[in-house]
Amino acid sequence: MEKRPLILVTNDDGINAPGIRTLIEVMNEIGEVYVVAPDSPQSGMGHAITINDAVYCNHIKTGSDKPQMEYSCSGTPVDCVKLAVNEVLKRKPDLCVSGINHGSNSSINVIYSGTMSAAVEAGTMGIPAIGFSLLDFSHEADFNPSRKIVKEIALQTLKNGLPEGVVLNVNIPKLNSSGIRGIKVCRQAKAYWQEKFDKRTNPLGRDYYWLTGEFVNEDKGTDTDEWALEQGYVSVVPVQFDLTAHHAINELNGWDL
Amino acid sequence: MEKRPLILVTNDDGINAPGIRTLIEVMNEIGEVYVVAPDSPQSGMGHAITINDAVYCNHIKTGSDKPQMEYSCSGTPVDCVKLAVNEVLKRKPDLCVSGINHGSNSSINVIYSGTMSAAVEAGTMGIPAIGFSLLDFSHEADFNPSRKIVKEIALQTLKNGLPEGVVLNVNIPKLNSSGIRGIKVCRQAKAYWQEKFDKRTNPLGRDYYWLTGEFVNEDKGTDTDEWALEQGYVSVVPVQFDLTAHHAINELNGWDL
């Protein structure tokens, strides 16, 4: 009988978020699960790491009904992956899954997302990694329709491996199981956030801002994650951490430098 | 006579760091300068944004000897760019420069770097943007040899524009002016951090960790930023924020999903 894969589970919504609890349950059906996740919400932390502060990591007693090992970490999602692989896990995991995020990480959101940055960090260590997100920000979001999709993509990743330097960004539309039309491999849509700052004055008379924004997608392509999600498909975008714009090198070599 | 370009200056080491002071001085030679930078060090913040907290932004009176307008911001480098463009500047700037960072942002460091994330954020808004870093972590680093390089690359960027969806990651070796051999357009080296956590116990008996690490470059290419820097060249890497691994889409379409 084959050895069960070792799976690292993390997220950015914090270790008690419903999304990660669903992900843990699905991963328990596949392999031996270690959870190392933030002790508090870390949404929008991108690829931040803690370099000027101590990081705490506590083992959580989970009871005999829960097969997974759990650790909560005071750091960012990327800190969690670094700590997990270097200090908590007995060996390099066979898979790292992050999420299930409460809310979309499609298109440009990938660069702000702690969920995806955790997956990318695992990718830099040569670990097959996937970030999962459900297009529902609510704490009460229904993660049940995501279960089958998450399991299928995780199993295929374990079976096939991932191309070198690539991790997966999976977004799941807010639909019931019968409403989801399938899974599409996509490119990241060219979209951006149009910020709208909400300016207020605090009780001491000092102005401050809340960051809000409107998502603008001007990409008309039918091969993008935004298009797939709008059509009711799960989007899978292969994401790389070689950020070199190789196509631009020639043009820059024409500059007078 | 042509209108002087409007230039946004930011960084991640904080508004009082010597690196940004040098950058401001150089930009004053080129255009009309607005500085919106963090009020405290924000190294390693990656593309983090502040979504669950208020952000303060204070105008700093600089005196008549300093032509630039300055604002310190309580948020991350990416927050600074968002606030600057949407609330502080009278129009979209012609250029955004970030740095000069105290320390390297070559190869994989680009994904952790607040300096580069600020430039990337400006890029998502369609603003030509450049992150500058000097390979010297010291507060007393000598930024003088960087002046000519920074000015030259900024002027070329204003003149030529940048390809769509591309920003520049410029790293400068720690050499005097006569030691710098020139400027090379490069790709990001395939390198990674091998973490070494320093485990300690606090006075209350709780274990904690300090993140440390060793930089490992296994990329033997002579077209990488690491190679160029080792040879005494300034490296210029075109960086994109479309993270899609386009080359991997075909392979994933072969999966049984």
List the SSEs and their pairings:
The structure is a homodimer.
Chain A: E1 6-10, H1 18-28, E2 32-38, E3 57-60, E4 69-73, H2 77-88, E5 95-102, H3 114-124, E6 129-134, H4 146-160, E7 166-172, E8 182-185, E9 191-201, E10 207-217, H5 225-230, E11 233-240, H6 249-253
Parallel strand pairs in A: 1-2, 1-5, 2-4, 5-6, 6-7, 8-11
Antiparallel strand pairs in A: 3-4, 7-11, 9-10
Helix pairs in contact in A: 1-4, 2-3
Organism (chains A, B): Aequorivita viscosa
Cofactor (chains A, B): a divalent metal cation; Mg(2+)
Function (chains A, B): Nucleotidase that shows phosphatase activity on nucleoside 5'-monophosphates.
Report on this model:
- Chains A, B: One of its GO terms (cellular component) is cytoplasm.
- Chains A, B: Its cofactor is a divalent metal cation; Mg(2+).
- The structure is a homodimer of 257-residue chains.
- In chain A, the strands form 2 sheets. Chain A has a 9-stranded mixed β-sheet, sandwiched between helices.
- In chain A, strand 1, helix 1 (18-28) and strand 2 form a beta-alpha-beta unit.
- The first copy, chain A, has 6 helices and 11 strands.
- In chain A, helix 1 crosses helix 4 (146-160) and helix 2 packs parallel to helix 3.
- The model of chain A has no long low-confidence stretch (mean pLDDT 95).
- The N and C termini of chain A lie far apart (61 Å).
- By secondary structure, the first copy, chain A, is of the alpha/beta class.
- Chain A has helices at residues 18-28, 77-88, 114-124, 146-160, 225-230, 249-253, and strands at 6-10, 32-38, 57-60, 69-73, 95-102, 129-134, 166-172, 182-185, 191-201, 207-217, 233-240.
- Chain A has one domain (6-189, 222-253): 3-Layer(aba) Sandwich (Stationary-phase Survival Protein Sure Homolog, Chain: A).
- The interface between A and B is large, with 81 and 81 residues.
